[in-house]
Amino acid sequence: MSWNDIINNNLIGSGNVSKAAILGFDGAVWAKSDNFNISVEEAVAAGKAFTALDALLGTGLRLEGQKFLVLNADEDRVIGKQGGSGFFIYKTTKAVIIAIYEKGLQPEMCSKTTGALADYFKGIGY
Fold this sequence. Notes:
Layout: H1 3-11, E1 19-24, E2 29-32, H2 40-47, H3 53-59, E3 61-63, E4 66-73, E5 77-82, E6 85-91, E7 95-101, H4 107-123
Antiparallel strand pairs: 1-2, 1-7, 3-4, 4-5, 5-6, 6-7
């Protein structure tokens, strides 16, 4: 199974995630959903998000040119929101998984789906 298959089947295919990406800590895009227009700068910021958690709480994070307020940030997960949309970024051993939910999707289910994939990655050393 490819990285794109994981995005499309496990995240987007769940019906709980609108857009998703798997990035290296350096911001390199391993895979993303076709509808996720993340810029290089945004990918680098997301990949490095866990190195400056306190700063994120004050500055927020941009994804697809939209600034999200960061509500919570710890060593495993960053949570952001903007209007009826939001994101979860989960850290694994070697990557970060970004999942965006948009209006009509439940944030809790987006988090649960993405967190389960992050746990699976950690279990296999990724």
